[in-house]
Specification:
By secondary structure, this protein is an alpha+beta fold. It is built from 16 helices and 8 strands. The protein has helices spanning 9-16, 21-61, 66-72, 75-80, 82-95, 100-134, 144-168, 172-178, 183-189, 191-205, 250-253, 260-265, 286-292, 299-315, 331-345, 380-397; strands at residues 214-217, 222-229, 233-238, 243-247, 257-258, 268-276, 356-359, 367-375. The protein is rod-shaped. The N and C termini lie far apart (114 Å). The chain crosses the membrane at residues 26-46, 147-166, 172-190.
Length: 414
């Protein structure tokens, strides 16, 4: 008969009452298991209450909101499970003293649970750090999610190694060394993760993309604001409110456009042209010049240029019986000057940035007249309104200079 002890207390009583040894062993194990589980449950309940009250009181007394974030991420609740788990691990040999095989399985299971609990606590802490850093203005545009995911990936790798080490009975170091031969397979499995990790570091170091940046990535159909940068993907909320997901490594392997420079410059570029029919361009005679003097924006220009041209032609005895001789004004040149003056005086144009009206290379349709300037308001809706207002005026003003805008005419098929 086994020597009397606490762990065999029920066993000894049942043997004395005439029960079989097997029955006594199972009854003893079940009673001890219920007692240990009950103790662990009570300790877990009490520990959670104590930690909850302590953390809540601490959060009220401190000025920082970091402890509030720890509570919201359930860190105290996860930490509270440590003591009950230790109790279970310590009492397993006592409960399953007559069941060595079951004891081995339960011990391994509890150790695996301990590893998973540790990873859960680490994740809660890292998520708390992430949420706290996002409340600080200097970290709002940083890819904090990527860094947290990197730490968690390494944590899970170590945790999985430890679990397999427990299951196989090998030491952690020996198990890790034995995986060296399978490194090629591991690299293949985690290819995207590794690429994403390297890309996240490069994106962060080179400051290529921040949260809140407006980017355009035609290959993936993305055109909008970056709302999340993680280890594997970058999420872009397009202007139609759809979400486009881009692989992080695509930011360093493909070409995309980041509009941050425009947003911080204080101006948004206007680069649009109208095509003037070549057949409507002409030299101006005296009657035309007198007519254009009535257009206020170019009155001074017409007076100065016409006086200068007349003086040049007189000094050089130019025969003006034919209009092409000597120097002349053209309705196209006067229109270009008019647009330049109009843009320079427009209240919505940024005067500190490039501003010009230029004539582009002739095309089969006509000669493009391009306005190149920057609006002082970079907001999309206001930008479109400013550009529309400018070209409404341009289109209406063309006829005042005896010019016409090219329009494609489609022959009637009938």
């Amino acid at each position: 008969m086994l020597k009397f002890s606490v762990r065999h207390y029920i066993y000894d009583i049942l043997i004395e009452k005439g029960f079989s040894e097997t029955t006594a062993q199972y009854a003893n194990m079940i009673c001890l298991l219920i007692a240990v589980l009950l103790i662990a449950f009570i300790v877990d309940f009490i520990t959670k209450r104590i930690l909850r009250r302590f953390s809540a009181g601490l959060a009220k007394r401190t000025k920082t909101n970091f402890d509030d974030i720890l509570i919201s991420n359930k860190l105290p609740r996860n930490v509270a499970h440590i003591i009950p788990l230790i109790i279970l691990i310590e009492f397993v040999p006592q409960v399953f003293t007559d069941f060595d095989y079951t004891e081995n399985i339960i011990e391994k299971t509890l150790k695996i649970i301990a590893i998973l609990l540790t990873l859960r606590i680490i994740r809660s802490f890292l998520n708390s750090v992430k949420d706290y850093l996002k409340t600080l203005s200097r970290y709002k545009d940083k890819p904090i999610d990527s860094y947290i995911q990197v730490f968690m990936i390494f944590g899970w790798i170590l945790g999985i190694f430890a679990i397999f080490s427990i299951l196989t009975g090998l030491t952690f170091i020996k198990f890790a060394i034995s995986l060296g031969t399978a490194s090629a397979v591991i690299l293949l499995i985690f290819k995207d993760t590794i690429l994403g990790f390297v890309a996240s570091i490069q994106v962060s170091i080179n400051d290529m993309v921040r949260i809140g940046d407006w980017i355009t990535f035609e290959k993936y159909g993305a055109d909008g604001d970056v709302i999340e940068i993680s280890l594997a993907t970058v999420k872009v909320q397009n202007w139609d409110k759809t979400i486009t997901t881009i692989p992080t490594y695509a930011l360093i392997s493909d070409s995309f456009k980041n509009w941050r420079g425009m947003m911080s410059s204080g101006g948004r570029r206007i680069k649009r042209s109208v095509i003037i029919k070549t057949s409507t361009i002409k030299f101006l005679n005296d009657e035309d010049i007198e007519h254009f003097k009535n257009i206020e924006l170019i009155t001074n220009y017409i007076n100065e240029r016409s006086s200068e041209i007349k003086k040049f032609n007189a000094d050089n005895n130019v025969d003006k019986s034919i209009l092409i001789n000597g120097r002349n004004l053209t309705n196209f040149g006067v229109f270009r000057k008019y647009l330049q003056t109009y843009i320079e005086r427009h209240s919505a144009i940024n005067k500190n940035m490039t501003l010009m009206v230029r004539q582009l290379e002739p095309t089969p349709q006509g000669i493009p007249m391009e306005i190149y300037a920057f609006s002082s308001d970079i907001r999309w809706q206001n930008y479109e309104y400013i550009m529309g207002d400018i070209f409404d005026h341009v289109l209406a003003a063309v006829t005042y200079f005896d010019l016409q805008i090219y329009e494609l005419s489609v022959a009637n098929s009938d």
